[in-house]
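Lay summary. Proteins are chains of building blocks that fold into shapes, and those shapes determine what they do. In this project we predict the shape from the chain. Here is one chain we studied, written as its sequence of building blocks.
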Amino acid sequence: MAKYKSDKFYVMNIEKVNAKLTEMYDDPMTGQSRINHEVRNLIKNFDKACIAIEVAYKKATGKKLNQKYYVCNQDEPYAQNVIDIILTGESEKKLTLTK
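And here is the predicted shape, written in a compact code that computers can read:
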């Protein structure tokens, strides 16, 4: 059976990150940002950086980087079922490819 790799992908909920950073770094009294200007620009331009990485990857390899994935939180009660289905499918895919 295929093995689970916990460090293969990095997934981030951008909406949650932006909301939390805004909550943490915007001063509710003045409405002014307390976050470092450079850090705020990094946050705003994160999506642009991801697109640049995708373009560079495709140029270097000829392959798409931005595949589509389903994400399952590991603390969900059905998470083990999801990973078992994925690993079984990966094992079957490998068997098909080796024939």
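What the prediction tells us: Residues 11-63 form one domain.
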